[in-house]
């Protein structure tokens, strides 16, 4: 199972091809790839099947309102006026990731009061919305999200230590 997740994450995020096939380029990208991976893992387990749950669709479980606020991005053969534009975009990992980037650029804020805008804040904004991000995250979301962030931090620390020891 872990290998499958790793493959999906590499396939979606590891190539750095955020704008692959999008109708226009997204310039400002405040959310790191590690953070996007944790949002994906927490939101859907990175389940790439094209499904919507209670109006939230794709690997990030993006709602129509979030998509609208995120710039109504579309795939090349779509227009934002198309009935399927929302579902098509949020079910495409690149379009969905760029929607998150746009939304967070527009609504990013310090939700936890630590005087930094970072992945913890983006997780709260993603789950609770930009107006309610200071609220308490549901336990199940917080548990998975924080575990993923901790794992990413540990991997980064190990990589830095390895790099320093080889110098």
Explain this structure:
With 167 residues, the chain is mostly helical. The chain has one domain: Lysozyme, CATH 1.10.530.10. 54% of the residues lie in helices and 2% in strands. It contains 7 helices and 2 strands; from the N terminus they run ααββααααα. The chain has a two-stranded antiparallel ribbon with strand order 1-2. The longest helix has 28 residues.
Distance between the termini: 35 Å
Question: What is the strand arrangement across the widest sheet?
Answer: 1-2
User: What is the number of helices?
Assistant: 7
Q: What CATH architecture label applies?
A: Orthogonal Bundle
Structural class: mainly alpha
Number of domains: 1
Radius of gyration: 16 Å
CATH topology label: Lysozyme
Residue stretches low in confidence (pLDDT < 50, at least 5 long) are 1-23
Estimate percent helicity: 40-55%
C-alpha geometry: globular
Count all strands and give the number.
Answer: 2
**SSE string, helix = H, strand = E?**
HHEEHHHHH
Mean model confidence by pLDDT: 87
Q: Into which percentage range does the β-strand content fall?
A: under 5%
Reported for the largest beta sheet, the result is:
2 strands, antiparallel
Which CATH class applies here? Answer: Mainly Alpha
